[in-house]
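Thread amino acids onto this structure.
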């Protein structure tokens, strides 16, 4: 029998949230390493640590009963910023084509456009779907592999092949999760419209 999920609290300073803040602080450092001195090894390490702490903060939040509303907002924000920063860096380094970045960012723009309507209707954003998490993990695996594949030799060739596999799967799952999110928003808004009082005309 599954245990019920722990309720979210208003706590801000928790161990999982501290890990998310550290991930956020790593975003500008990653971009500088990638675009400034071209220290790809250190940039890869930052990306790897980001992926690890993304997994770890979720585990700790459940194990330590430190689920929080702030963490529920901070964790996906850190994911989005890492994805955006990595896309910018890899496009400027000519590691990935511009169309891939537009495809991924375009999904976030479309999903984000629904948030004002939700807030106006008094709804919080739907919880992150497991497909969205799977997509994020795929993309966070894809980006370091593609960066590693920007070279010569057997390792670089294998990294590029696996990197593109993760990128294609991740982008597909990203859009699938976005469509599910849009369907959730549509359902919420439809239910809200049905419950709204009707004005008599005449």
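Threaded sequence (202 positions):
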């Amino acid at each position: 029998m599954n245990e019920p999920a722990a309720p979210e609290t208003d706590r801000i300073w928790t161990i999982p949230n501290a890990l998310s803040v550290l991930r956020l602080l790593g975003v500008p450092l990653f971009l500088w390493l990638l675009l400034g001195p071209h220290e790809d090894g250190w940039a890869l390490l930052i990306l790897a640590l980001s992926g690890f702490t993304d997994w770890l903060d979720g585990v700790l939040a459940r194990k330590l009963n430190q689920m929080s509303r702030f963490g529920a907002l901070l964790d996906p924000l850190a994911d989005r910023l890492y994805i955006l920063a990595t896309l910018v860096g890899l496009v400027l380094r000519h590691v990935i084509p511009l169309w891939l970045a537009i495809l991924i960012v375009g999904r976030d723009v479309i999903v984000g456009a629904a948030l004002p309507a939700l807030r106006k209707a008094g709804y919080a954003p739907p919880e992150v779907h497991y497909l969205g998490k799977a997509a994020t993990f795929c993309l966070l695996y894809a980006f370091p592999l593609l960066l590693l594949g920007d070279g010569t030799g057997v390792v670089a060739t294998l990294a590029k092949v696996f990197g593109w596999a993760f990128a294609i799967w991740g982008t597909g799952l990203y859009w699938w999760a976005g469509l599910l999110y849009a369907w959730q928003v549509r359902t919420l808004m439809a239910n809200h419209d049905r419950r709204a009082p009707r004005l008599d005309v005449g």
